[in-house]
Write a structure and sequence with these properties.
Elements: E1 13-17, E2 20-24, H1 30-39, E3 55-57, H2 69-74, E4 83-87, E5 90-93, E6 96-98, E7 103-106, E8 113-117, E9 133-135, E10 141-149, E11 161-163, E12 168-176, E13 182-184, E14 188-192, E15 195-198, E16 200-205, E17 208-212, E18 215-218, E19 224-229, E20 239-243, E21 246-249, E22 261-264, E23 272-276, E24 279-280, E25 303-307, E26 325-327, H3 330-333, H4 338-342
Parallel strand pairs: 3-4, 4-7, 5-8, 6-9, 7-10, 8-10, 9-11, 10-12, 11-13, 12-14, 12-15, 13-16, 14-17, 15-18, 16-19, 17-20, 18-21, 19-22, 20-23, 21-24, 23-25, 25-26
Antiparallel strand pairs: 1-2
């Protein structure tokens, strides 16, 4: 097992015509965007109702598009209004750092729009610099795309997405990697209908994050751990909640190698992780949870909870006998919903047509 050492009104709308950038105070509707794209010789932009398309990225050289996501971000206006970048299908080998607030990256679907990188500890990158995509600006959304780090199972820390964005959403996205796939670093975060794959500590960080209807998939490895949550003080409010999710092997050939998969281990002494109403397949070890390493003890300030889970890995009779482990009742589980845990009812509706419950 490799032990990680983690580090830490009018809306302006961009209209792209050839190489010239112009602004307009008019809001572009979905129909307008589709018509504009078609007139330029490109495919219509397929976005949710009410969305505004500010820029397009395409690898086929269609008029009015940027060839890379990086260039689209570089030319984004400096105001803080929502800025939607539509990324056409294709594989984009890029390393992105997004500091502008309220950026929306919208692709054409999981496995169709892919942002890829392979930085890792083995090749000299620390955890932060290994990320394929790093998001620092608040109010970020990724939708209908894949972000991956392909460094491999023995590469050490190799982040696909570092999310340091408060009030951020990933909807219908795939985050694919091995060790440290998703760094849920800071702020309130919501992941809905996503797929997250990895091996060691592949969902880690100090964010307050809720994962809903998301597939958590362990890849072939000698020892897998889903979470390494980093809440580091009694007054902090961070934690990870998995609601209506599933934990299973990434593929049939991974099932045997993924059989020793734990739901989490405490990166910090106040680590908080809860699984509610989720399906736990037989890849989940009967103990459920483990200590950080073989010599460390799990402090009572850690909180690992389970409620109303199902599946062959959900049997709690063999779970760890720690003060830190809790079998929740319905009243306790009610604290770990979108509204109660991340106050999502106050901010998720800002993102068009992102469902939650």
């Amino acid at each position: 097992m490799v032990v990680s050492n983690h580090e830490a009104g009018g809306r302006l709308v961009l209209v792209v015509v050839g190489l010239m950038l112009m602004t307009s105070a008019a809001t572009t509707t979905d129909g307008d965007a589709a018509a504009a794209a078609a007139a330029a010789g490109g495919a219509p932009l397929r976005l949710s109702a009410g969305s505004t398309t500010n820029a397009q990225v395409a690898q086929d050289g269609r008029p009015g598009s940027y060839p890379t996501i990086s260039q689209a971000l570089e030319h984004a206006p400096t105001h803080e209004y929502e800025h939607v970048i539509f990324i056409s299908k294709g594989t984009y080998p890029e390393t992105l750092t997004i500091t502008r607030p309220n950026v929306r990256l919208v692709g054409e679907g999981i496995g169709r729009t892919i942002i890829t990188g392979n930085r890792c500890k083995r090749t000299g990158y620390d955890t932060a610099s290994s990320a394929t995509v790093s998001v620092l600006g608040q109010g970020f959304m990724a939708r209908d795309l894949t972000i991956e780090n392909t460094a491999g199972v023995d590469a050490g820390q190799a982040v696909a997405l570092r999310m340091s964005s408060d009030k951020s959403v990933c909807y219908r996205c795939e985050l694919r990697g091995f060790q440290d796939t998703l760094w849920a670093d800071a702020g309130d975060q919501f992941y809905r209908s996503c797929i997250i794959t990895g091996t060691v500590d592949f969902i880690f960080g100090n964010a307050r994050a809720l994962f809903q209807d998301t597939k958590v998939l362990a890849r072939r490895n000698g020892h897998n751990v889903v979470t390494a949550q980093g809440r580091d003080g009694p007054d902090h409010r961070s934690g990870f909640v998995f609601q209506g999710c599933s934990v299973a092997a990434a593929a049939a050939q991974d099932a045997a190698g993924a059989a020793t998969t734990f739901l989490g281990r405490p990166w910090r002494d106040h680590s908080h992780v809860v699984f509610v109403d989720s399906y736990l397949d037989n890849v989940v070890n009967s103990q459920g949870w483990e200590q950080w390493n073989i010599t460390s003890k799990v402090p009572h300030t850690v909180f690992y909870g389970e409620f109303h889970n199902r599946g062959p890995g959900a049997d709690t009779t063999g779970r760890v006998r720690w003060p830190a482990f809790h079998l929740l009742n319905a009243a306790e589980a009610a604290n770990f919903t979108v509204s109660a845990f991340i106050q999502g009812h106050e901010w998720i509706p800002r993102f068009n047509n992102v469902p939650y419950y």
